[in-house]
Specification:
Length: 194
């Protein structure tokens, strides 16, 4: 069994949802996984308490959450000594046209923090107009109309491909298991674990 830290930053909760799915997938594979919201203070975490680390963040105004950028920068050396992965949630990953933009955000993040994760996952996010204030809702509807003209902006839309999230998690888990020389006990459901 491997202990995984899944540290994430989120604005309206989509990255938290992705982190929860990652935790569920790792747990079903027989590992121990803990999701931690970097926005909740105090963030008194020791990377060294975990065998492997996944860090996730969403994009708001072209940037990842400052708490994530700061955590990764100050823990860069400890992260470099472990198997790690980064996942990003954004509107740019909602369709193929945004691919270069999404990759650009990651490039900037790697340059700024100096951290080079072993695996990277890019996931489409969600537009939750119902949770935005008046001005944000207006701006985001305009942004969506331009970026995703086929999408109906009259209601909330989730673009996350959950099969992709699970496939990414399985790939990360296989990489970590092989790097740490661990054979995972494979559980298909909670009852098998009892
Ligand atoms: C105010 C605001 C700004 C955003 N800016 C960007 C952006 O610059 N690029 C992008 O690809 N997505 C952008 N998005 C889309 C978010 O990344 C997407 O809604 C994601 O699901 C947010 O995840 P979260 O709820 O975990 O914060 C923005 C969303 C909001 C609400």
């Amino acid at each position: 069994m491997v202990s995984f830290l899944v540290l994430y930053g989120t604005g309206e909760g989509q990255t938290a949802k992705v982190a929860d799915r990652i935790v569920d997938t790792l747990t079903a594979r027989g590992h121990d996984a803990t999701a931690v919201d970097a926005g909740k203070t105090p963030l008194n975490l020791t990377v060294d308490d975990f065998d492997a680390v996944l860090v996730g963040a969403s994009i708001h105004g072209g940037k990842h959450q400052p708490a994530i950028r700061e955590f990764v920068t100050s823990n860069r050396e400890m992260l470099a000594a472990k198997p790690t992965a980064f996942f990003q949630v954004s509107l740019s990953s909602a369709d193929e046209q945004g691919e270069a933009q999404a990759a650009g955000y990651v490039e900037e993040f790697v340059e700024e923090t100096g951290w080079h994760p072993d695996r990277i996952g890019l996931f489409g996010g969600a537009l939750r107009y119902s949770q935005y204030g008046f001005l944000k809702r207006l701006v985001m509807k305009q942004v969506a109309k331009r970026a995703l003209p086929d999408v109906d902006t009259s209601h909330d839309t989730e673009f996350t491909d959950w099969a992709e999230v699970e496939a990414f998690t399985a790939d990360v888990a296989a990489f970590v298991e092989s790097r740490l020389g661990v054979t995972p006990p494979v559980y298909n459901n909670a009852e098998d674990r009892e």
